[in-house]
Design brief:
signal, globular, Cytochrome c domain-containing protein, Four Helix Bundle (Hemerythrin (Met), subunit A)
Length: 155
């Protein structure tokens, strides 16, 4: 199972992020381990900055923010074994589509890919019993414009 987790992490990181062997070591008991909520808050911030950079057509910054977002997801998968590997791997196609859209500077493809990535985040939240955390594609540049704060409708 550990080998599978490492393979998934390495696949997610890919060529977009430089990773050293030291980065992939599990933390020892005396090392600081960020709370999962803090890692996810960083990911949410990167998600919004990714959107803002693309809206400004700053594709270099978009690529950087996407790499940082991937790094947050990898960190969460490495540090929190309770996150099913499948939750992380299902994001790979939308992460790649987002990267491809950035590389070609295609705003339309980027919008679609970011929408798919956002839905992937929400699917993970639902599967983890955190359906009250709903991320959305930002509609404006206000802080936390990429999260819905009203409770989700009950089926």
């Amino acid at each position: 199972m550990k080998l599978c987790r490492w393979i998934v992490v390495l696949a997610l990181v890919g060529a977009a992020t430089a990773v050293t062997a030291q980065d992939l070591k599990s933390p020892s008991a005396d090392q600081y381990v960020p709370r999962l909520g803090d890692i996810m808050s960083a990911a949410q911030t990167r998600h919004q900055k990714l959107w803002l950079a693309s809206k400004a057509q700053n594709w270099e910054l978009s690529a950087y923010e996407l790499r940082q977002l991937k790094a947050s997801l990898v960190e969460a998968a490495l540090l929190y074994s309770g996150i099913p590997v499948s939750n992380v791997t299902t994001l790979e196609p939308s992460l790649q589509a987002t990267s491809d859209a950035i590389a070609t500077k295609d705003g339309r493809k980027f919008a679609k890919a970011l929408g798919d990535l956002t839905e992937g985040c929400n699917a993970c939240h639902r599967s983890m019993g955190r359906s009250f955390v709903v991320i959305k594609v930002p509609a404006d540049p206000q802080p936390f414009a990429n999260q819905l704060f009203a409770p989700p409708a009950r089926p």
